[in-house]
Amino acid sequence: MRFARALWGLGLAMLASLTMATERTPIVVWGLAPGPDSKGVDAVVREFERRNPQYQVKLLSMGAGEMNPQKLLTSIVGGVPPDIIRQDRFTLSDWASRGAFMPLDDLIERDRGKDPLTPTPDQYYPAAWEEAQYEGKIYGIPTEADDRIMYYNKAVFREKAADLRAAGLDPDRPPRTWSEVLAYSKVLTEKNPDGTLKRAGWVPNFGNTWLYLFAFQNNAQFMSPDGRTCTLNSPEAVEALDFMVKGYELLGGYDNANRFTSGFVGAENDPFNLGKVVMKVDGDWILNNMSRYAPDLDFGVAPPPVPDDRFYKRGRFADEKDTFITWIGGFSYAIPAGAKNAEGAWAFIKFSCSLEGRMLETRAQRNWDISRGRDFIPRIKAHRETNVQSYAEFKPAVPAFAAALKMHVDMSEFGRVRPPTFVGQILWDEHVRAIEFASRKEKTPAEALQDGQRVVQRELDAHYRYDSLPTADLKLPMFFGLGLLLVGAGLGYARIRRMPMGRMGRYETAWGYILISPWLIGFLIFTLGPMLASLVFSFTQYNVLSEARWVGLDNYRLLVGEERDNVLKAFGNVLYLAGIGVPLGLLTGLAIALLLNRASMGIRTYRAIYYLPSILPVIATATLWGWIMNPDAAKGLINFAWSNTLQPWLGVNPPGWLTVAEWSKPGLIVMGLWGAGGGMILWLAGLKGISPTLYEAASIDGASPNRQFFGITLPMLSPILLFNSVMGVIGAMQEFDRVYVFRGTTGSAGPSDSLLTPVLHLFVNGFNYFKMGFASALAWLVFLVILVLTLAQLRLSKKFVYNEVAD
Amino acid sequence: MPKELLFVIGSLAHWIGWVVLAMGIYHLVRAISAGRESRAAWPLRRAALTGLSAIGLFALAHVFTGGGKGVALPLAWPDMHPLGWVVLICAVAAASHGTGAFTGITPEERRRRGMSALVSLGVGALCVAWIMVFKHPFRWLTGWMTLTAPTLGFIIAVTLGTTAVMGWVARSAESHDRARRFLTQVVLFVGAVVFMLPLAWLLVTSVKEDRDIASTEGLVWIPLRTQTVPYMDPKNPVFEGQYQGKTVTAVRDAGAPGGKHLYRITRPMYVSGYTFEATPDQMKQVPSEAPLVTLTDGDLKLTGMVVEDLPDGRRRVSILTPNERKGEVKVVSRAEVEPVRTPGMRWENYRDSLEFLPPEANNGLVYLKNTLILVVLSVLGTVLSCSVVAYGFSRLKFPGREMLFKVLLATMMLPAAVTLLPTFLIYRQLGWIDTLLPLWVPTFFASAFNVFLLRSFFQQIPFELEDAAKIDGCTYLKTFWSVLLPQVKPALTVVAIWTFLGAWNNFMGPLIYINSQENMPIAYALQLFQGQRAGEPGLLMAFTTLSVAPVLALFAFSQRYFIEGVTLSGLGGR
Q: What's the mean pLDDT when you consider all of chain A?
């Protein structure tokens, strides 16, 4: 094994070269992506390190942290969290409720007055500060404050001035109320003869409003004041959703509008910049791209339109103080519980969130952008004074952009935030689902919100029920299991002792057990123990951070009850893969093997070529195929071939592969066929093993090649068929790596969950939400399904598989 | 009669004419090649007859299709939908089989012919339905192709070629066999090309410039490189110097006290943007790469280099050719200049992809180190533990052995998912999160499949060897080590290779247990890289190539073991 020795040598050499000592205490920060263009952050880090030479800031991005809750939670649970995490503010409460983040009140109290950099509530927009709180404690220092305002295309307003006037609308000002928006949109929208859109006046959820903005305007609350009841379905929210639905109706429906807006790909083709969408409500993050790609755009800004009653101060809005309000979101810095260098983390947060740090960041970023020939428009920060200063210092030269920035800064004072609740993420997910259902007219707004409310409420109830549940002392079953094991071992030992054996026999027995002990110990620790533990977990509610509680059969009830749709979907997806993908893979492998078996030359080369793809790392293959299956025919290899052959011949348009629900699984299957070479090798070995005398005898009897194949080849190959198909089905049922890579960043597993698999579902529940109980129940279900399928195959095979040697 | 129908009849006559002509040529070839003694007169006559009828058909076609177009071929296939052809072929097949159904000798034969006629009819109907449903722009057997000398030559060459091949194939069983083998080779070759295409695409993309990747005119298979010329930029000079013991490229930022300057690093990527102070004599100016472009000035074609990108998007170009205008500087907009690009590879993608990694990754070496540690320890652990356990299960007799072995076999069916969560909690208790330990320690506790495989190999070794060793007074361990282990070397190699692949490709383990760059193996780093650099496929593909290269290298060196390995493990597993 010269090769292995060479590898060792290489490894050792590298080890030696990597021992770089660092004396400074590291501060590990997650979620700040250091990149070639993030010069502002770099400047802050370097200045901080200059002032605090005892610290070294380590920015870790590459997906760790930020939007990957699984990484954050495993690191906290595992006792190795980062020191700082940059976290979306509305999810802070979610984490805080599980005790995952450190409350910062004590630190603020300690340093207030002593350290001028200490953040205090009065420096921040009230909404942003409020959002970072949970049960009266502050868990993160807000960084950005992205509020939404209305953008409208003045040029189109002028172009359509006559029509607008005819409809009794003023073309010189933007709409201010909901009914005005709809009226303007009706006039400004233009359709093609076939009903598709040519220009959309206003697309409700294009830009960034969701339901939250409109609901806030209508004074809707999403949670009851005590936080125990979800009020997603309040009449105010229903009205707001109804308004959105009406907006979509004007455009010929939700799907029609989406087809139109999703046709513009890339920041340089933004439909608003192109005048294809005339009005939108969006955040300040769009300004930099707008100034880059549409510097000459003639646009205006206004506060987002509000309900008519609110604008005219009628009815329940008679005493309303603020006419126009907006919705604020953004990020914050938090310190995870158990951070090793909380003191350093706090020092870094203080510096980077202070006016000085913020201005340093803005200035450095601006200098960099200007040096690269780009315009720079500062982002809105949660720190109030920063915005005032940076507006004064970096006011955009173009008046329209200056006005937009000013409007964003001004509106920040009138921000509303998502309710700080530990169900924030679920509430968000469900509200998105409600918008879709209602806008698609599959449900009425009231029904859609009602259904969403039920899901959120269930989660709330489960949380509050927790305290009333009996504590599950996991030590008890553990000791019980251990005791049982010892008794079993003792009994076994006693039985062996009683056996009539010579001295040599005893010696051999002892050595036998010593030799198999690695497996025996491994089996007990890594298989039997965890299996039993998993069984126990499946009857509990357990999130690792707090103690487990017994819930009886609730987890299993969930599997067949409220979670049934997801579970069925997951199993349906893998059955699809196993039912279509595995046979196709077997056929491909067999076909190649048959050809190779017939070939007279180059077998070794061909064999290597066909086999090679099957040993490549799955992640590498998935990464490669993600690009090969790019729906754009100018980029993706498959669609390039498709658009040059099948499209002109059969008139079938190339599919969207992984971006479309119907094609994502076929995509996986096609990708799997590339790895059919693994099975091919087995088929080939089997074919070589068939005695030629069988064929000779058959041809003498006058059997046609077809008869020979079905009469000799296939039966002789049946053991391999069984082996390949059992392994293939087991593999398909446990599909994980590829779907994890392909699922995208949206949180759902592929388009409309079309890539959701049981193991992925288990992984997400186990490691993203740490619902150990539910995930364990799911694991057992996966086990049972695989067991049943395998046994069924083995049983079927008894009928068909030819066994040369009868046991 | 309607004009279209006439045209169809004419076209058909024309095409049948071609087929008949081909038949005539075929007969002629056979008549000539049949040998002197057997050269009967009638194949020749047949050839003449078919030739004549072909000419007749052509004439007919000419009349029916309206003629008047000079020598032209009423042509369908470049113009007609391929489904149309399927329909036609199906119609012909249905007709011939249908008539055959009545003339069959046995009822069995009649039934078979009738069935195939029906099948052809069905396929034809399906195709027609397809055309109707998808409303494909469709024309039957129309379209003309002017018969020029090259096309005519081509058609004749193809006809002669196929005729010759068919004649040769039909001559004897041996040539029939040879043709079959040839066909097999062709199919295998085409298949191999298809299987290699994704890898070829991976390699090509990994050396493409962004411009080629973003190309909207289809895939680029031959990467082009933008030509650059070295240019000592007086305005924005680029320097090379030492920063923390490494050679870096930097630009001058501002003056600093003590006659020093502040330099900002541009390369390597992981320290880019950092500034440091240095005296001017510590830094050496190096030429920057100015892209070569062409532009037109009136009718004149100029070549120049871009010396500066202006903030407003325009570019300052210094003219290089023609000679009389050399040195002249023009300010032009981006659209007016066209970069000079020649076929070439952008190897810098590889360097860039590594330089984009976080500094902790030390250009990806850390990932490689972690993966190697993992692989080496896993292979060591698996080979050692599995062979010891397999030895125990196969060569020693002890009570409980059969029962325990059945348990071992049963665990092969257990999906890893069941034990996933509790094992996580075990490692958490041990404080092993964010270390490599959970990924390799379990390999020292033997895995069921490998034990099973090795046991069947141990069982094939005759007991005599062992007995001899026993008589010599060897202990069990000594017997195992010096007598039995050498006997199962091939099986151990197989186990080692599979463990190597498994450890190299392991993704879920690192995904759960590893958080920091310092402990990350390649597979997981690649997934994160993919998430972060999805917008830069050039770099992504370069990194992917780097991550698969070691596996490819191993495969190249030990292909035999790989393939034997599959065979052994697969057949052992039945």
A: 84
Record: contact A75-B515, CB cut-off 8 A: yes
Class of domain B359-572: mainly alpha
Q: What is the mean pLDDT of residues B256-269?
A: 74
Task: Quote the percentage of chain A above a pLDDT of 90.
Answer: 19
Q: How many helices (H) and strands (E) does chain A have?
A: 38, 16
Whether A598 sits inside 8 A of B181 (CB atoms) is yes
Q: In B, which residues are within 8 Å of A36 by CB distance?
A: 269, 272-273, 356
ipTM of the complex: 0.79
Do A201 and A306 fall within a single domain? yes
Is the Cβ pair B516, A28 closer than 8 Å? yes
Q: How many residues does chain B have?
A: 574
**For residues A293 and A267, is the Cβ–Cβ distance under 8 A?**
yes
d(CA B44, CA B26): 10
Mean local confidence (pLDDT), B452-458: 86
Distance of CA A268 to the CA centre of its chain: 26
Set of chain A residues whose Cβ sits within 8 Å of the Cβ of B544: 620, 623-624
What pTM was estimated for this model as a whole?
A: 0.78
What does the pLDDT average to over A350-360? 90
List, for residues B73-122, the tens digit of each pLDDT value. 655 545 566 677 788 888 888 888 888 777 777 788 888 888 888 998 89
In tens, the pLDDT along A474-531 reads 777 788 888 888 898 888 888 888 887 788 888 888 888 999 999 999 998 888 888 8
Q: Is B574 within 8 Å of A722 when comparing Cβ atoms?
A: yes
Same domain, A151 and A140: no
Which residues in chain B have their CB less than 8 angstroms from residue A772's CB? Answer: 421
Q: Is A119 helix (H, G, I), strand (E, B) or coil?
A: coil
Instruction: Tell me which H or E stretch contains A602.
Output: none
Query: Helix B173-206 crosses helix A582-598 at what angle (to 10 degrees)?
Result: 130
Instruction: Specify whether A307 is located in the same domain as A164.
Output: yes
Same domain, A248 and A263: yes
CATH number of the domain within which A572 lies:
1.10.3720.10
Express each pLDDT in A367-388 by its tens digit: 777 766 667 888 888 888 888 8
Cα A460 from Cα A229, distance rounded (Å) = 7
Quick check: is A5 in a domain? no
The CA-atom distances, in angstroms, between A411 and each of A127, A384, A388 are 11, 12, 13
> A676, exposed or middle or buried, with CB in 10 Å at 0-12, 13-18, 19+?
buried
- B544 interface with A at CB cutoff 8 Å: yes
Residue-range definition of the domain harbouring residue A167: 147-318+423-465
Q: What residue segments make up the domains of chain B, in order of their start? A: 3-182, 225-344, 359-572
B525: its two tokens: 């780093």
In sequence order, what are the residues at sequence separation of 6 or more whose Cβ sits closer than 8 angstroms to the Cβ of residue A469? Answer: A541, A549, A550, A551
CA torsion angle for A268, A273, A278, A284 (degrees, to 10)?
90
In a domain, A526, yes or no: no
Kindly state whether B207 is in contact with chain A, defined as any CB-CB distance less than 8 angstroms. no
Domain match, A214 and A228 both:
yes
Q: Check whether residue A35 and residue A106 sit in a common domain.
A: yes
CATH number of the domain within which A29 lies? 3.40.190.10
Per the structure, how many domains does chain A have? Answer: 4
Residue A3 falls inside a structural domain: no
Statement to judge: residues A484 and A459 lie in one domain: no
Phi–psi pair at B308, nearest 5 degrees: -160, 140
Chain B nearest C-alpha distance from A489 (Å): 11
Considering only residues A252 and A798, tell me which one the structure prediction assigns the higher pLDDT: A252
User: Do residues A302 and A367 both lie within one domain?
Assistant: no
Contact A74 B515 (CB under 8 A): yes
- Residue A549: inside a domain, yes or no? no
Please name the residue that has the structure tokens 């509303």.
A416
What would you measure as the largest C-alpha separation in chain B, in angstroms? 110
